[in-house]
Amino acid sequence: MGAMDTQGAATSAAESSAEDAAERRDLAVRAAVEQGLVGGSDTADPLTCLLDVAGIRASAAALTSAFDGAVAPGTPVLHAFAVKAAPLVPVLRLLADAGLGCEVASPGELALARAAGVPAGRTVLDSPAKTVAELREALALGIAVNADNPQELERLDALVGRAPTASPIGVRINPQTGGGAIDALSTATSTSKFGVALRDPGARAWLVRAYLDRPWLTRLHIHSGSQGVPLALIAEGVRDLHALAEEINAAAGQRRVDTLDIGGGLPVNFASDEPAPTYAQYVAALREAVPALFDGSYGLVTEFGRSLLAKHGLVLARVEYTKTSGSRPIALTHAGVQVATRTAYAPAAWPVRILPYDAKGAPKTGDPVAQDIAGPACFAGDLLATARELPRLAPGDLIGVPDTGAYFFTAHYGYNSLPRPAVHGFTLTASGEVRFHLVRPAQDVPSIVAEAGGPLRDALLPASPAFEARGSGRSPGL
Ligand SMILES: *Cc1c(COP(=O)(O)O)cnc(C)c1O
């Protein structure tokens, strides 16, 4: 089979899976209304979030098989899911069951990975501001650590010198290959805050020396992709990483660097159900730019987040009211900045699709009318879409916001004390019946009060009379 055939087959497989996913989504919406998870009535929840379990499994399988098909037999490959994309323990557990590990970047994310039962040997810690306590814990657990900068490496010198560790340790480099379409998400600009800037004067020599001086440095790390970054640019960074590893190993006269952690950052298509680019295309881009990457000389670690989860999440929200303002129809819904923070603040960079459903959860049809889809928060920019052509929405209808499985409802923003909505996974039985599985309960109002210092109600009041009696002798009026 030629390269064209392989690509054609991969594309049509992706297409049929996109159709299946859209079908499963519509079944799930209907069932969510029927089963009372969300709906138009006053007693139903006005907002809920769904995750397609079969879709998540399919993405994990696509990632795994894309690499399995490329690496030399026997090459160790760890796909570590970037926890920040969907920090939900049952999701991490599902991915672990599909053979994936976790990439964590805070004590909270590490705790989530451990709660999911992800073993230390399948966990990677990356973050630009690790404390000594975090580093000590990571080394004690034996999880992989990627140092961000020379000062962190000095901390590791001290810790590694004091106690033996099973942790594989690497250094993150910034290839300075340039940014993508979204500034805030471009990690490989010349002045990026991440990693050791490879093209700065003296940096390369410093890195080689650092590895020669430290036999325990065995990995190199890069994460140069993200939403808005083209595949060729991601591949260029990985090529530079591989070249640096070769240079270090040549200088060491041995295979000092044995593993390359090539990060994540595969962009996601927010315009349709099609997963694009695919993992197969990503691997093809790497094979073209760095053929030697897969020859078995190096074990590989990946750290994908968005591309594994985004397309499998759906926000479902009730339309509470509709109105017109300056002749523009507006639907006031319960999904806004709290579940789609980036879309509200940077709408041009993070456009989302809006899927209209009627009050029964059936896809809504009708002549398209340009409408604004607004969220519930009290600021003017809380819009999910502006002048979007949709069948005219009515109170009690639902809107679905697809492609929101990563960095949307899993990265809640607590504006207006809006609660974190419930998250339900869904599966289909053999007979096509939808089953929901609670992944995260909705945040209730008492817990909002508690997290907002409810139990500390009097903390800021003037000192109590009892304190005054012991204290300054000043009158409470002063
Ligand atoms: C955020 C992040 C990832 C995941 O990025 P995606 O774009 O979600 O694939 C991987 N590695 C590191 C170091 C990250 O910061």
TrEMBL record:
For this protein, the record's PROSITE patterns field holds: ODR_DC_2_2 (PS00879)
According to UniProt, the name of this protein is Diaminopimelate decarboxylase
* Family label: Belongs to the Orn/Lys/Arg decarboxylase class-II family.
Domain (Orn/DAP/Arg decarboxylase 2 C-terminal): give its ranges: 311-405
* Keyword Amino-acid biosynthesis found: yes
The protein's UniProt keywords, in alphabetical order, are: Amino-acid biosynthesis, Lysine biosynthesis, Pyridoxal phosphate
Q: Which SUPFAM superfamilies match?
A: Alanine racemase C-terminal domain-like (SSF50621), PLP-binding barrel (SSF51419)
What ranges does the record give for the region Disordered, renumbered to this chain?
Answer: 1-21
Could you name the domain of life of the organism this protein comes from? Bacteria
Originating organism: Streptomyces spororaveus
Cofactor(s), by name: pyridoxal 5'-phosphate
Give every Orn/DAP/Arg decarboxylase 2 N-terminal domain span.
76-309
Q: What is the lineage of its organism?
A: Bacteria, Bacillati, Actinomycetota, Actinomycetes, Kitasatosporales
**UniProt xrefs under InterPro entries:** Ala_racemase/Decarboxylase_C, DAP_deCOOHase_LysA, De-COase2_C, De-COase2_CS, De-COase2_N, Orn/DAP/Arg_de-COase, PLP-binding_barrel
